[in-house]
User: Which sequence fits this backbone?
């Protein structure tokens, strides 16, 4: 294990031990969205990032208090559910419009 691995592990462990730190799982397509959400919350700052599963990134965000941390985590998960539902709705509409278009030919 090299010095960077040790420093990264130490930074992550400190972030995980803090009750005011939220963990956000961010897909590459969501990087701008999470940055906009954090820009709107001046008391929240990113304290650690590391690669997650596949292309995802684990982002540790320090908030002013536990209430704000819980609110940030809930807001992020709500956004992800909304976005997943939006993508699914558009895929269904595209399939149905493509199917309707082929029947009219």
Assistant:
């Amino acid at each position: 294990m090299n010095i960077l691995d040790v420093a990264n592990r130490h930074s992550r462990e400190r972030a995980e031990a803090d009750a005011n730190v939220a963990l956000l799982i961010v897909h590459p397509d969501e990087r701008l969205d999470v940055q906009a959400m954090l820009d709107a919350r001046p008391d929240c700052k990113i304290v650690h990032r590391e690669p997650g599963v596949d292309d995802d990134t684990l982002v540790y965000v320090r908030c002013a208090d536990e209430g704000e941390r819980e609110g940030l985590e809930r807001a992020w998960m709500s956004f992800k559910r909304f976005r997943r539902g939006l993508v699914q709705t558009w895929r269904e509409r595209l399939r149905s419009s493509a199917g309707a278009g082929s029947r009219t030919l």
